[in-house]
Fold this sequence. Notes:
It comes from Belnapia mucosa. There is one protein chain. By secondary structure, the chain is of the alpha/beta class. The protein has helices at residues 20-26, 38-49, 67-71, 83-96, 109-124, 141-144, 154-170, 190-193, 207-216, 276-280, 302-308, 322-340, 350-363, 373-384, 389-392, 395-404, 412-423, 431-438, 443-455; strands at residues 4-10, 15-19, 28-31, 54-59, 74-77, 100-103, 134-138, 176-182, 198-201, 234-239, 243-251, 459-463, 469-473. The chain folds into 3 domains: 4-251, P-loop containing nucleotide triphosphate hydrolases (Rossmann fold); 321-384; 404-490, Arc Repressor Mutant, subunit A (Orthogonal Bundle). Strand 12 and strand 13 (469-473) form a beta hairpin. The chain is globular, with a radius of gyration of 28 Å.
Amino acid sequence: MTVSIDLGQTSAGTPALLDLEELLATRLLVQGNSGSGKSHLLRRLLEGSAPWVQQAVIDPEGDFVTLADRYGHLVIDASAHSEAGLVLAAERVRRHRVSVILNLEGLDAEAQLRRAAAFLGGLFDAEREFWTPMLVVVDEAQLFAPMAAGEVGEEARRASLGAMTNLMCRGRKRGLAGIIATQRLAKLAKNVAAEASNFLMGRTFLDIDMARAADLLGMERRQAEMFRDLRQGHFMALGPALSRRPLPVKIGAVETESRGGAPKLTPLPSRPLEDARAVILEPPPPEAPRPRRAPPPPPPDILAQLAAARPAAAPALPPPAPEAEAAHRRRLEAVLRQVLADPESAWRQPGQLHQDFLLRCRIEQLGSRLPDLAGFRRMLAVAKAEVPEEMAATPDWAEAVASAAALPEDLQPVFLLLARAALGGEPCPSDAAIARAYGTRSVGRARRALAFIEEQGAIQCRPDLTGQRIVTIAGPGWETAPGNPAEDAA
């Protein structure tokens, strides 16, 4: 099926169409000075493709957050999340196929680079089974992939440039289609710009930018002067998703409004203040400082709501006898152990394991009182910790299970694995063991999961004098023995 996005009109009056499937394979570069209509073009493209493909927008000025009201994008306020939290959020965005806007407004330049790099890294490092098509739009790309070092720290610049390079150079196989927009081609790293095969070039005035735009469009240098004469909202289009020859395009209207529009002229007061100096420079009252405007409430986090969602309670039934309930529970746990005996079970999704579990329960004739997916996830988290029966019967283990419930479901097995080691005085689990409990083969994701749990205040990690890791469970203070993080999982 071919999906075409209507960008507006060509100079001949025909619709200017962009082939969405071709764009997913070839990427897009948009260039134009401030006021050329670059953000308007991106908004038109996002609105037209929103029903067809998942989207992620890196928004340094908060211009695109208004898309959320019309198209249901999740707005993530980057200032309210750590880098580790943004990496996990990006992985969950790909897992749940939620369109998202990363709002970097209010952060300084270095913080914007670090958080954008973390989020793009999470999108790029997602598991292979979640490599579905996604448009990744980066506005003001020269900030995140600068040609040369600027005022930000070198570490932040390298991290951001590496994430942008991965997006444009290696993202296609992972389903990521980069769309980058810049005011200055000369300030954008060449290895990032060179990976785009589609171009929309708007008004620009500097000779070096006009020359690079002409080169990218295959035009002669003497034709570069035309970029000075382009009006607002007019672009030259070229690329397999747009046109085989440079084509003038006028971008059409959009349905949502930007928060970053240019200010309009406003009439001055009809008469000046009688004593401006006295009014403006009057000192404030001694005990009545000017109140600060309260910040707006953060937007709802859809991913957090998904993680915390629980199904409605079933109608109350007469409770079974305690002995029968305990026997039924033991039989369910025995079936779950059969499911987890498969060496590949650690990498399968909970929904797949649940289906296998239900099938085995029906074969064992365990009746209709079987756990739903949420209940199965809780059983799975406990089972992955491999806690001994004598420990499972203690009040301390019940406290550990209750503490795990405050974490997202995919992190509960990791917390319970650490709690079991701490209660038993065992060495701290290695990164490989934590990765297996988390359901991934990546030790990098395991370390990020551990960092996220620590940020939530559930654990404390510290090294001993030999560099081995010790984890303390917050609250009761249980502590693991030192363990080697690099040790292979059993």
